[in-house]
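Repro:
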Amino acid sequence: MRSHAPPVALGLLILLVLPAAVAWGDENPYLINRVQLPGGETLDVVITPALPPAFKMPAVEIPESAGSRAAVYLSEVPAFNWCYGCSATSGAMIAGYYDRNGYPDMYSGPTNGGVCPLNNSLWGYGESPLSATHQGYDGLGVRGHVDDYWVSSSSTIDDPYITGAWTQHTHADCTGDFMKTNQSAYGNNDGSTRWFYYGSGSPYSNPGTGNADGGYGLKLFFESRGSTVLSHFNQYIYGWEGNTLGCTFDEYVAEIDAGRPVIIHVSGHSMVGFGYNTAGNLVYLHDTWDYNNHQMTWGGSYSGRDHYAVSFFRLEASTVIFNDGFESGGTTEWSGVVGG
């Protein structure tokens, strides 16, 4: 059976030696561990295992905003359907956006002339080598992520490379590798990824305790592609479980204005926020379940799942020429440089 204990490593020792976890709250059944840290802070471990639902939220048309900044969104953010985990798929969409906007080494495969496409239909439903490499797809002739780590949706048994007694592939070309998605050695069932948060609502950025954290893993993926990550963090939104230090809608708006897509976490699921509308505090997003644009109210719910957190990734600025980045009816401050 698949073990839920992460491997013993310096970055995870704190999870193994501290007192037992606090009982979980009913608000978030995906909270799988809560550890009291020295100094009084708590560290929450949250899992995102959601599969595509039978009912999907309707698509939305993002309105023109003549003469105002009410509705703003980043163009050329890919929309992928679910590819072996919502968190890895969300990370791949963000990587695909950067690949198309000044960071051309995020995707280096043969499809679409080496430029990440705007959806994953060219690879077939549920496949994306930027999310999870798979032998026989995108020219891969050896085992990849899917071959080594995937059994079936929500499977709890050990990964194929363990039961088959072969050497797992070297982590390289997909977000799922680095984010530890699907990997039984890190306690992740098939389709799931772990995210770490400070219970106070302060930003969590892997201060020596999170090599199984999806946010830290996505940072490692960006770095493996030659990019410098100036900062990254996961953070509960303001007011979640009564915190006063969490991320606000205004801070999310600032990320989009800076040309940076954001991972939006709702209960059991991760998505990509790529725009906003200040009228109603709306978040425009790709939900990993189709190729459409969708929206939710900041701090509200999506498909019945409560919005509780975000993950930010700030890359060193690229000076490569690319598209203008924003779509908006109003004047923007877009400078032609992403990251930073």
